[in-house]
Write a structure and sequence with these properties.
There is one protein chain. By secondary structure, the protein is an alpha/beta fold. The chain is built from 15 helices and nine strands. The chain has a single domain, classed as Rossmann fold (3-Layer(aba) Sandwich), CATH 3.40.50. It is globular and about 50 Å long. It starts with a helix and ends in a 10-residue tail after the last helix. Bound molecules: 3'-phosphate-adenosine-5'-diphosphate. 3'-phosphate-adenosine-5'-diphosphate binds next to helix 3, helix 8 and helix 14.
C-alpha cells in the first residue's frame, strides 16, 4: 500500500494541482493546498500584511471553531459591545485576511473605529507561511484546533451544503481519503496544527493554542485564560466572563436572525449561507457518520503525526 505522501504525489498533476472533489482542483503554495479563488488573497497577505503589535490574529484550520472564537475574541476585546453579536455575524466583525481584508471582491465587513487599539483578524493560512509576519510584528495569535475526525466530519457536511445543486456530492469515503492525503483546502490538517502548536510551545506569550474540546468542556476557564493572554484580564468578581460565554454560545449565537439562512455573504466569490456555519456543535459527532475502518485509519495517522507533539487527539 502506498504511504499517504506517495498517494498525495500520485494525485498531483504536473502543474502542481491536486484533485479535491468533483472537478475541483486545489493548488499548492509551499506544500499546502488552497482553493484557486483564495490564492490571490493569500499571496497578498503574505506580501502586504503588516500587523501592529497590538493586533490579534485568530488562526485556525477550517471547521475547528473559527466562528465561535471570532465571537469570543471580539467580546473579550470589546466587552461593552456584546450587542454587536446580535446585529452581525462573527465573520463580519472579525474578517478573514485572505478572503475579506485582502480580497476586493468580497462584501464589506464591520470596520473597527480608526482609533481602535486592537484590531482582530482571522486567517486559515498556516504558520509555516505566515509565521515570519507574526514574529516580526510582535502581534498576538490565538489558534483553535479541533480533533481531526470532527473537523473532517464538519467539513464534509459543510461542503455538501455549500455545493450548488448540479454538483455531485462529496462522498464520505472520498472525504476521508482526501483528508488523510492532506488534499483539502489549507491542508494538510496535521501540518497546519503542528505549525501553530510548535510556535505556541516556542513562544507562549505570543501564540495561544486552545482546543475546541477544552473550550466546550470548560468555557469559563478558557475565556479567562484568553483574556489574560490578550492583556485584558477580568476581575475575579466580574460576571462579564459568564455573560461572554453565554452570548457566544452556540444556542444563543445560532438563534440570532443575522445568523439564519436568509443571510448569506459573498466571500472571495463564494456565497456562504450563515446557517451553514452553525450545525451540531458537539464533540464526537463524527461517530454518527464515519465507518469503524475510517475511524481506525484516521486514529492511526493522527497517532503517527501527533506523536510527541503534546497534542492528545489520537483516540478522541
Ligand atoms: P469555518 O472554518 O467555515 O469558519 P468554523 O466556525 O471553524 O467554520 O467551524 C464550524 C463548526 O463550529 C461547526 O461544527 P459542526 O459542523 O461539528 O457542528 C459549527 O456547528 C461549530 N460552531 C459554530 N458556532 C459555534 C459556537 N458558538 N459554539 C460551538 N461550536 C460552534
Amino acid at each position: 500500500m502506498l504511504g499517504d505522501y506517495a498517494e498525495q504525489m500520485e494525485n498531483q498533476d504536473s502543474s502542481g494541482e491536486g484533485k479535491w472533489w468533483g472537478n475541483k482542483q486545489l493548488q499548492q503554495i509551499n506544500g499546502f493546498w488552497f482553493m484557486p479563488l483564495a490564492i490571490p488573497g493569500v499571496q497578498r497577505v503574505l506580501a502586504e500584511f503588516n500587523p501592529r503589535p497590538n493586533d490579534v490574529i485568530l488562526a485556525s484550520f477550517p471547521k475547528t471553531g473559527t466562528t465561535w472564537l471570532k465571537a469570543l475574541l471580539y467580546s473579550i476585546i470589546n466587552p461593552s459591545s456584546l450587542d454587536s453579536l446580535v446585529k452581525h455575524n462573527p465573520h463580519d466583525l472579525v474578517p478573514f485576511l485572505e478572503l475579506r481584508v485582502f480580497n476586493e471582491g468580497s462584501e464589506p465587513y464591520v470596520m473597527p473605529p480608526p482609533d481602535a487599539k486592537t484590531k482582530i483578524f482571522g486567517t486559515h493560512i498556516p504558520y509555516q507561511l505566515l509565521g515570519k509576519t507574526f514574529e516580526s510584528s510582535g502581534c498576538r495569535v490565538v489558534y483553535v484546533s479541533r480533533n481531526p475526525k470532527d473537523t473532517l466530519n464538519s467539513l464534509w457536511h459543510f461542503v455538501n451544503k455549500w455545493k450548488v445543486a448540479e454538483e455531485e456530492a462529496w462522498g464520505l469515503e472520498e472525504a476521508v481519503e482526501k483528508f488523510c492525503q492532506g488534499i483539502i483546502p489549507y491542508g494538510s490538517y496535521y501540518e497546519h496544527v503542528l505549525g501553530y502548536k510548535m510556535a505556541s510551545l516556542k513562544n507562549p506569550n505570543k501564540v495561544f493554542f486552545v482546543t475546541y474540546e477544552e473550550l466546550k468542556n470548560d468555557p469559563k476557564t478558557h475565556v479567562k485564560k484568553l483574556a489574560e493572554f490578550l492583556g485584558s484580564p477580568f476581575a475575579e468578581e466580574d460576571n462579564k466572563v459568564e455573560e461572554i460565554v453565554k452570548s457566544c454560545s452556540f444556542e444563543v449565537l445560532s438563534n440570532h436572525e443575522v445568523n439564519k439562512s436568509e443571510h448569506s455573504r459573498t466571500v472571495a466569490t463564494m456565497t456562504i449561507d450563515s446557517k451553514a456555519l452553525f450545525r451540531e456543535a458537539t464533540v464526537g459527532d463524527h461517530k454518527k457518520y464515519l465507518s469503524d475502518e475510517s475511524i481506525k485509519r484516521i486514529d492511526t495517522l493522527t497517532n503517527e503525526k501527533f506523536h510527541n507533539s503534546g497534542i492528545a487527539y489520537a483516540f478522541n
